[in-house]
Design brief:
Chain B: Its EC number is 2.8.1.12. Chain B: InterPro entries: MoaE_sf, Mopterin_biosynth_MoaE. Chain B: Heterotetramer of 2 MoaD subunits and 2 MoaE subunits. Also stable as homodimer. The enzyme changes between these two forms during catalysis. The structure holds two protein chains of two kinds. Chain A is of the alpha+beta class. Helices cover 25% and strands 28% of the residues of chain A. Chain A has three helices and five strands. The longest helix of chain A has 9 residues. Chain B is of the alpha+beta class. Chain B has four helices and eight strands; from the N terminus they run E-H-E-E-H-E-E-E-H-E-E-H. In chain B, the strands form two sheets. A four-stranded mixed β-sheet of chain B has the order 1-4-6-2, sandwiched between helices. In chain B, strands 5-3-7-8 form a four-stranded antiparallel β-sheet, with no helix packed on it. In chain B, a hairpin with a 4-residue loop joins strand 7 and strand 8. The longest helix of chain B has 18 residues. Chain B is globular and about 50 Å long. The chains are: A alpha+beta, B alpha+beta. Chains A and B meet through strand 3 and strand 4 of A and strand 3, helix 2, helix 3 and strand 7 of B.
């Protein structure tokens, strides 16, 4: 199965606009974040635990316990600052 | 990039500026039941003194195309459920802005003033912490930085019974599902 990750704001500057990744059944957003951190390098820096990040699943704000399905669109980004 | 703006859409994300008077007129047009219109305009603010090297030179606004519109549409749906209002519209600009520029417009119409005042504040409080926009400031000395979210904005939303972990300490706690249609009586914010 595969999913598309999108990054915004400071994460986009560090990691690019996004990337496609393969995943197994039942993957949660939190486990996906951990897998990206485990790559090391810039991923580990900007997605590090302790940094306040938010995530969305299929364009809806989501908890890290949310489970992705095949073809999902996942996004990681800093707290929002519009308005 | 900016979507083509449908001038009658409830939510518009655009680079172009907006005209408050024209938007108010458009919202009222053809609805004789409207007796009150409340609007809010947010502008690019500079917290520094003039001449300070940190003074804001420019601001860039980024958003998540698709999700932004969807999130604000859901906020308007909830405002229509919670408040006795006639209509609501939100315009939010993206791209490069200058100090003093208009950023966001919320306009709400209702029969009587109280409902549109409350719905306007409700929409802004929610938008601030749950609509995917990000601001980056460039200072007079050339340095640029992303603006931090404010805990006070989470508190403002909490007054309406909606939790946001936007500026909170624990991202994995930061759930913000849309609330179920409110069965409880509407209580105005206490602060």
């Amino acid at each position: 199965m595969s999913l598309q990750i999108r990054y915004f704001a400071s994460l986009r500057e560090a990691l690019g606009p996004g990337e496609a990744v393969a995943h197994h059944e039942g993957l949660t957003l939190g486990a996906l974040r951990d897998a990206l951190i485990a790559r090391g390098g810039v991923h580990a820096q900007v997605l590090a635990r302790g940094r306040v990040l938010r995530c969305a699943l299929d364009q809806v704000m989501a908890d890290e316990s949310a489970v992705v399905r095949d073809g999902a669109e996942v996004a990681f980004f800093p707290p929002v600052t519009g308005g | 990039m900016t979507q083509t703006a449908d001038p009658v859409a409830r939510v518009r994300i655009q680079q172009a500026d907006f005209d408050l008077g024209a938007e108010v007129a458009a919202l009222r047009a053809g609805d004789p039941a409207v007796g009150a219109v409340c609007s809010f305009v947010g502008t690019v603010r500079d917290r520094h003194a003039p001449g300070d090297p940190g003074a804001v030179q420019a601001m860039a606004l980024e958003h998540y195309p698709g999700m932004t519109e969807r999130a604000i549409e859901a906020m308007i749906d909830e405002a229509l459920r919670r408040f006795d209002i006639r209509a609501a519209r939100v315009i939010h600009r993206v791209g490069d802005l200058l100090p003093g520029d208009q950023i966001v417009l919320v306009v709400v119409s209702s029969a009587h003033r109280g409902e549109s005042f409350r719905a306007c504040e409700f929409l802004m409080d929610w938008l601030k912490t749950e609509a995917p926009f990000w601001k980056k400031e460039t200072a007079a000395d050339g340095s640029a930085q992303w603006i931090d979210a404010r805990v006070s904005d989470d508190a403002a939303l909490a007054r309406w019974g909606i939790r946001s972990g936007n500026a909170g300490a624990c991202a994995s706690d930061a759930t913000s599902p849309l609330p179920a249609p409110s069965a409880a009586p509407i209580t105005p914010p206490t602060a």
